[in-house]
Design a protein that fits this description.
Radius of gyration: 22 Å
Structural class: mainly alpha
Mean pLDDT: 88
Largest sheet: 2 strands, antiparallel
Distance between the termini: 31 Å
Number of strands: 4
Strand order of the largest sheet: 1-2
Helix content: 55-70%
Low-confidence stretches: 311-320
Shape: flat
Number of helices: 9
Length: 320
């Protein structure tokens, strides 16, 4: 009865404007990306164990304090990353609330929005395990890959704001729908090997952390090979779009953005490799990875459409 009463009260709350929903959707993608980038700053500055415990920063203290073994700067870098997680969580909760209150309620939109706060909670647990395992390379890799997955899902959530409740139908050529999952699979391989390169490289997050015992040069070449395959698939996507005379402009725009950011990310990666992996380029490379994830997910979302929503001023209605 209490739950039903709460539901009835929630149902009486007017939905937020589409503009507000989009703003929160964009904030969700941005904060999910930002937490990945600040995590890389923690790693390259050797601040991963600046806070030696979780959820406390140091024994008996939730916040950084003077300590003979942990530099104050390293403590605040790690603690700042933890504080940012709180902001990510607030935005994620707002995303779900706005999706739930929207009328008429769309199941897919609500499900994607619900993933946001649930994902943040899971990431918090992974972060705590990462600290307790003293930054072992594989758990750090899991932590980063989970962030990349959240960026992908946040991008789908942002697109879902303007989608109707119907089944997905191809917006462009049908073969594109079969090629994009292959592209996404290669991207997963690219990211996984990238985390292995980092695991074997010099930036462990803490000088005492054991590294992945594999040759960095070999891993870097495998990483580059995945990039070449990804680029080849992008060329194939471009050929498919070109041969389809009625390809929507939206698909062309999203495809062009993806090509540009992948080429920029590849150039940054090679520069990073040939300059000895400087710290600032590591964080820029992680930033580039978040943009590649967003652009790929955006193209993925653009390749399908659902029955369009009808705008009545700032309100959203779904055609019968």
């Amino acid at each position: 009865m209490a739950l039903q009463t709460l539901k009835d009260r929630l149902d009486r709350i007017p939905p937020a404007s589409v503009r507000v929903q989009r703003a929160v959707g964009i904030a969700t993608v941005v904060t999910q990306s930002l937490i990945a980038v600040t995590g890389s700053v923690v790693r390259v500055t050797g601040s991963g164990l600046g806070c030696s415990e979780w959820p406390n920063c140091l024994p008996g203290s939730m916040v950084p304090v003077e300590h003979p073994e942990y530099a104050m700067l390293n403590q605040w870098i790690e603690f700042g990353n933890r504080l940012l997680t709180g902001l990510v969580g607030v935005v994620a909760i707002a995303a779900f609330v706005l999706a739930y209150l929207d009328r008429p309620r769309r199941a897919r939109y609500v499900r994607l929005a619900l993933v946001m706060p649930v994902g943040v909670a899971i990431q918090g647990i992974i972060g705590g395990v990462t600290v307790r395992l003293d930054l072992l390379w594989w758990i750090v890799a899991v932590h980063l890959l989970a962030s990349m997955l959240m960026i992908w899902l946040a991008t789908l959530y942002l697109n879902a704001i303007d989608e109707g409740p119907g089944p997905a139908v191809p917006r462009g050529p049908a073969v594109l729908g079969r090629l994009l999952p292959v592209l996404a699979g290669v991207l997963v391989g690219l990211l996984v090997v990238g985390t292995m390169v980092t695991g074997a490289g010099p930036h462990a997050g803490d000088p005492a952390t054991p590294r992945l015992d594999l040759p960095v040069d070999v891993l870097s070449h495998v990483h580059a090979a995945f990039l070449y395959v990804f680029l080849a698939l992008l060329v194939a996507v471009g050929v498919i779009l070109r041969r389809t005379g009625d390809t929507p402009a939206l698909l062309w725009r999203r495809y062009a953005v993806l090509v540009v950011v992948v080429l920029a990310q590849g150039a940054l990666g090679f520069t990073q490799y040939f300059t000895g992996v400087p710290e600032v380029l590591v964080s820029l490379h992680v930033l580039g990875a978040t943009v590649v994830i967003w652009a790929t997910a955006n193209l993925w979302a653009g390749a399908w459409e659902r029955p369009a929503v009808v705008r009545e001023g700032e309100r959203v209605t779904v055609p019968a």
